[in-house]
């Protein structure tokens, strides 16, 4: 689960948490239900995680994405990371 705000102050911890999850292997669903704000630092963390996963043939999916973070990701053309439910990634 991501923090309430994924900004430059939280990016380091989020990066470490995502790397630990990636190390376990497989596709990664990230619960964004608490995330109310994301900035460019946060987007960079998510893109980095996605890049690592794709290099392993796996996928990143963001679930329970609220309004502001969803708008930011949509504006950046990153809708392929968004999932509207918790079903497995195909």
Strand content is: 15-25%
- Kindly report the CATH topology: Transcription Regulator spoIIAA
Distance between the termini: 21 Å
Helix and strand element order = EHEEHEHE
Task: List the domain count as a whole number.
Answer: 1
- According to CATH, what is the class? Alpha Beta
Treating each run of at least 4 consecutive H or I residues as one helix, how many helices?
A: 3
Q: Summarize model confidence as the mean pLDDT.
A: 92
Task: Explain what this protein looks like in three dimensions.
This protein is of the alpha/beta class and 90 residues long. 46% of the residues lie in helices and 16% in strands. The strands form 2 sheets. A 3-stranded parallel beta sheet has the order 2-4-5. The chain has a two-stranded parallel ribbon with strand order 1-3. The longest helix is centred in the N-terminal third of the chain and has 16 residues, at 8-23.
Task: Record keyword descriptors for this entry.
disordered C terminus, 3-stranded parallel beta sheet, 90 residues, alpha/beta, Transcription Regulator spoIIAA, two-stranded parallel sheet
Lay out the secondary structure.
Blueprint: E1 5-6, H1 8-23, E2 28-31, E3 37-38, H2 40-55, E4 60-63, H3 67-75, E5 82-83
Parallel strand pairs: 1-3, 2-4, 4-5
Helix pairs in contact: 1-2
Summarize the structure.
With 90 residues, the protein is α/β, with parallel strands linked by helices.
């Amino acid at each position: 689960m991501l923090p309430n705000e994924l900004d430059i102050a939280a990016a380091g911890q989020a990066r470490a948490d995502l790397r630990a999850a990636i190390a376990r292997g497989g596709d990664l669903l990230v619960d964004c239900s608490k995330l109310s704000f994301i900035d460019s630092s946060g987007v960079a963390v998510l893109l980095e995680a996605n890049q690592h996963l794709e290099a392993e043939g796996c996928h990143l999916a963001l679930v329970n994405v609220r309004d502001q973070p969803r708008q930011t990701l949509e504006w950046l053309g990153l809708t392929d990371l968004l999932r509207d439910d918790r079903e497995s990634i195909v």
